[in-house]
Amino acid sequence: MTPTKKAPPFVPTEFHVSTVEDDEGALCILSIQTTQGLLDIALDGPAADAILNAIGSIKAKLETA
Known about the structure:
By secondary structure, this protein is of the alpha+beta class. The protein has one domain. Helix content is 31%, strand content 43%. It contains 1 helix and 3 strands. It has one helix at 45-64, and strands spanning 12-22, 25-34, 37-43. The chain has a 3-stranded antiparallel sheet. The longest helix is centred in the last third of the chain and has 20 residues, at 45-64. The protein is extended, with a radius of gyration of 16 Å. The mean pLDDT is 90.
């Protein structure tokens, strides 16, 4: 299937971080306001580490470009 219309990009305009805690531990809520709406992401410790590693890789590629 060939797409006929390209979707507009989700450009981040605002970031907020909060934490919530329950019986199983703490979660970080990363809220990203974009040009297309609000995106909320719940992260536990390993997921937050994965995001940091990904951002580190992206920054390294940007610095060498």
